[in-house]
Amino acid sequence: MATTIESGNAGAANRKKHLGIPEAIFVEDVDAFMKQPGNDTADAVLRKLDEQYQKYKYMELNLAQKKLRLKSQIPQIKQTLEILRHMQKKKDTKDPMETHFLLADNVYCKASVPPTDKVCLWLGANVMLEYDIDEAQALLEKNLATASRNLDSLEEDLDFLRDQFTTTEVNMARVYNWDVKRRSKDNLLKSAEQS
Length: 195
Description:
By secondary structure, the chain is α+β, with helices and mostly antiparallel strands. Mean pLDDT is 87; it is low at 1-13. It has helices spanning 2-17, 30-34, 42-90, 133-194, and strands at 97-104, 107-113, 118-124, 127-132. Helix content is 68%, strand content 14%.
């Protein structure tokens, strides 16, 4: 009894993990599947399966775009954290820090930055806020952890989605082959009746 409950909870946790991606059910018995309400013809079933397949493709495209965004965002956060750590070391000295600022793509400007304990961070949507270096470092570390966790979750979702592709493709092939066999039997029966 306990095993059944635990496996049920594991299944529920797996479904929650891939929230928003419907699970493709494998068609074990095609004859029984085709007798279900709504599965009138093989063409109608193939259309439904193809529609489901296209939805999975669309979800894959969206997840891949999110993955690319996160993969570009993580190095930027790491670079900003390195700069903050460097500024943390330099804030107690009196020497200004020599650096180059990116003005535009491949265009840099040389600058001298006096020691400071304040930094400004772009938060997005044209919003910039001033933080103490320690606060900024804590915020960026939290953002880095969140982005890394989201990237791992996206990888798992993409793997799950690939499994759904495979299941849907196999289901389509099984229904198509079932229909070919059914038509072949019907043709044999018709030719036997005509003889």
